[in-house]
Write a structure and sequence with these properties.
The protein is of the alpha+beta class. Helix content is about 35%, strand content about 25%. The termini are far apart.
Length: about 160
């Protein structure tokens, strides 16, 4: 079953996959087509998973699942990973490099290596009004409150 992230409860599980390059329209279409199939077949403990796949800021593939008080079984988590690997294969994108961090500065989406961006924040080269995106959020509540962060108090500082 597919829902919007805003329709899921705050405890719903979330995964953030980051692309260092802009996900173009064709790539987005391919990912969302794969997502329709993935979501209609996603199960945990023999029950359909209520979830969503969304592309945000042309750089993030967000997968969320609300197991309705239950935990997701290992097969459900494995299915999530298989979906992302398939999305990478059909689009040519790398969505699983955990060293990539995306941020917005002066209205422009930029990407950097984790260590490089951390040094740029510490040195003040990243504008104080920039937004650093936190791919480590684990729940919809964390996504709503901590996905977008200011450089002075972001997860890299």
């Amino acid at each position: 079953m597919k829902l919007n992230i805003k329709e899921l409860n705050g405890e719903a599980k979330i995964w953030v996959y980051t692309s260092s390059v802009k996900i173009n329209e064709l790539q987005q279409k391919k990912i969302l087509n794969l997502a329709d199939h993935f979501l209609s077949n996603w199960e945990s403990h023999g029950k359909s998973v209520i979830g969503t796949v969304e592309i945000i800021e042309d750089h993030f593939v967000i997968i969320a699942a609300d197991p309705k008080g239950d935990t997701l079984c290992g097969r459900a988590v494995d299915a999530n990973v298989r979906f992302v690997k398939e999305a990478q294969q059909v689009t040519g994108l790398n969505l699983t490099d955990r060293m990539v961090v995306v941020y917005k500065q002066n209205g422009e989406m930029l990407s950097s290596n984790f260590n490089t961006l951390k040094k740029e924040i510490q040195s003040g080269r990243v504008d104080a009004d920039s937004v650093i995106y936190n791919p480590l959020v684990n729940s919809v509540e964390e996504f709503n409150t901590s996905f977008e962060q200011q450089p002075s108090n972001c997860w890299l500082a």
